[in-house]
Each structure stands twice: as C-alpha cells, then as structure tokens.
Amino acid sequence: MRIRSVIDTNSEEFAENRRAMLAAVGELQRLQEQVVGGGGSADAAKNARSVARLRSRGKMLPRERIEYLLDDASPFLELSALAGWGSDDPLGAGLVTGIGFVNGVECLISANDPTVKGGSQGPSAVRKGLRALDVAKENRLPAIALVESGGADLPKQSEIFIPGGATFKKLTQLSAAGIPTISIVLGSSTAGGAYMPGMSDYTVLQRDSARVYLGGPPLVKMAIDEDADEEELGGAAMHARVSGLADYLADDEPDALRIGRDIVKHLGWRKLGPGPAQYSRDPVYPISDLLGIASSDVRVPFEAREVLARILDGSEFEEFKPGYGSTLVTGWGHIGGYAVGVLANNGILFSEESQKGAQFIQLCNRMNVPILFAQNITGFMVGTKYEQGGIIKDGAKLINAVSNSTVPHLVLMMGASYGAGNYGMSGRAYDPRFIFSWPNHRIAVMGPKQLAGVLTIVARQKSEAAGQEFDDEAFAPMRDAFADQVEQESTALFATGRGWDDGLIDPRDTRAALTMGLSAVHSAPVEGAHDYGVWRM
To answer: What CA–CA distance (Å, rounded) separates 427 from 411?
Structure first.
C-alpha cells in the first residue's frame, strides 16, 4: 500500500527543520571538500603545497586513482570519509575507503593518501582500514588496496602497533574465505605496510615508483651497517625478477590500475545472494522533503512514515501490526528493487513495541530478508508502572532478536540514538553491515540535560547520606560543564570521527546510499537465523 504523506511542506515547522538541516549539511559538505582536496589539515596553504608536491612527481590523488580504477559512471560509496574528526589525527585519516564497481564487480577499495604524512597510518587510519576489511569479509567483496604508505605514524606507535596487527590477520582471513585480495603498489610500502602486498592474493608494483621493504635504507644502515641501494633493496623490478613478490610489473599508474581491472575481470566473480526482487521505482514524494522532516530539536519526535515514503520504492509499504505498539513502525518494502524489512522509531520503546519488533525480526529471518533499522530513539520506557509491567524482559526479547538475527542489518541514524534504544535498534555494537547517519544525529547514554540531572541527584544523595547540606549553587558549574561535554560528545561529527558509523550523508542521498548498501550485502548469501537465545516470558 502506498504511504499517504500528510506533512505540510509549507508550514513554519517544516521550514525551520529545513533551515537547521541545511546548515548541518553545509558544514558536512565543507568538511568533505576539505578531505577531497588533500593534505588532511585545516591549513589550506599547507594542503596546497602537499598536493603540488604529489603532482610534481606525476602522481594522481587517491580519489583520482579510484576513479581511474572504477567502471565508467560507476557510483562510489565512500565510507568513513570524516574519520579522525575532533582528534589530533588528520581529517579523513589519510585513507580513502569505499565500494564501487570494477569490471562489473562490486569491490571494497582502499587508497592511501600520500599528501597526508606520506600516507602513513595513524590510529584513525588503522580503525578505518580494519572496518573496511570487515565490510569486505561480511559482504563477500573482493578487496583492492591502492598502496602508497610510509607505514605507521611513528610518534603514535603506542596507539597503532597492537591494533594494527589485525590488518594482516584480516587480509589472510579474506583469502582463506575465498575472497580475493589485490594490492596495487604505487609508491612506498614500508615496514608493516610491506605486508599489504606480501599477504595479498595478487600484487601489482609500479616500475620506478613502488618501494616495498620491511626496513628502508636508513633502518638497514642502523641495524646491520649496510649501505643499501633503494632499488636493489625493494624496487619494483627487483621484486618482479628476484624476490617474486610482484606478480605484475606496471609501467606507470594508469598501467597499474589497468592491470588491477584485468585481474578483477578474470576472477569470474558472482554474487551469491538473490538479485533485486523487482524493478527499482522512485518514491512518489520528493526526496528533498527529507530536509524538513527531521525535527531541528532531537527531543521533538517526527513521523517515521514520512521518511519511509521518500526512500521506499514507489512509496509503498506493507505495514505489520499497525494498530499495536504504535511507537515502532514495522513492515516490508523495497529499496532499489531489493526487498527489505523495516523497523522505524516513532517514539520511545514500550513493552508492546519490544514484543512487536522481536516477532518482526524473526519473520524477516524466516523470509531471508535484510532489515533496515531507522533510528530516532530516546530509549526504553522507565518508571514503576513499566518496570512492574516487564519492560526489562520485553526489551530483552528485542535485543535477543537483534543479537541473533543473521540477515544483513542496515541502520539509518535519522535522529536521536540514546541508551539501550541504540542496542534494540541494532547499533554499532550489534554488527550491522552498514550505518549511515544524517548530520542532525545525536548519540549518547541519554540526553545532556538528563545526564547532568542524574549527576546532580546522585551528588545530592551522597551529601545527604554524609549528613551534609548540598550546595546546589556551588555544584552548578560542574553540572553545566558536564552537560556541555555530553552535548559535544553526542554530535554526529563526534560519532563519525570515531568510526561509530560508516559515514555522514546528506538526507537527499539516503536512498542512493541504502541502495548501494543493499546491493553490496547481496554479494554474500542472505540467510536468516532459526536459533535464538532463551526468551524470558
């Protein structure tokens, strides 16, 4: 049945929501442009010098390399574009990751950005790279690495060394799972970075540019007092003719990328999941309306069906249990032709919503249908009435269902994501295949004012238990500082900077991102669960 939109796009509320969202989108676009420009810093002049140095060597920027590798007109779903935001790591982490088509095959592609500290890896880059390898494994996507890296960012080695080792473990696990790994080395690949080509199924090295060695000439001099020639130590020609590390020797960057395309072509790769269930159809309502639907204040709820009407094929939605548990909308539809079950928040979760959601997740698993969780949730209901009514055991049913569901989960953060509501709606800890967030998104244990209020109550009770009078005025600065801290740490930018999602998106790009995500998950088999943990009745 087609969703009937009732929102007034001429109202002042819609206009205010739209103004707030456009402001957030504007900041998102500004940061994205900074990342795409190269250099990784907020200093435009410094970035320009870094890019000019790369150009002077006849090299492409990382996204140019990716574009050359991809099929003509292929979309590229970039992941974690703003990793490192709010930290002392470079914005974007000096690494580009995403999904695109190479000779008709969806591939996970990563590319070091040599304009950012020579492509060396900081903590954010390690997290981003590990996440990309997980995406490749979970969704059965061939992984292509465009390598030009100086290895670890040595001043931060204590934050990199231990977690960074998982990079090579995950590479070999991809290979063991039968998922091809390809390294195209276009520059330096030093120290730990040398294991990228060393542990890949296929390696392409660019003549006179690729340098692959565990220890460069300075380290060799310090370690064994040998004056090593760079080309003899780790040059592309040497690895092609002497060590055997190189499977293909490319003349230049375009040739290396062409060879990479040829490798993918000969794989004979096929998806194991079902194709689209029907032809893709645009929604009947303008997707640009999404700018004005989400409330400018995350404490104010909005109608989830209005969002679904603008992302589902034909705006059609078969709603499940529409009269029961009204603050959780559940049902089936299609996005980009792919069948999908939907759980969307229309308010706080009560016992009825928890039971309804758990049953619906089981049904999707029996049908082998992926699930979209559209989050705008302040948590599960609290209070004596609801505790006595069994909110804990009913909420546990929903979390049990989410935890043991094996069909792919995709998450859209379209508003708040507070408390255990994040868990019940398949937050990051529950391993969804993809999480995309709108820039208005907020995430925390609870809202800043609520957290500050709880802190005040606890402090007052502690004083009274000690027989002391609580000085509310003296405590106020600490309370307000805590509320400000929580507010800053709840933003969409803070979350994406730490890898809690797979990227911030303009609401108008929601359908495109979800369509690519659904296409990617169908590269692997889509199989539902039949076993669950104990249900507390």
So the answer is: 8
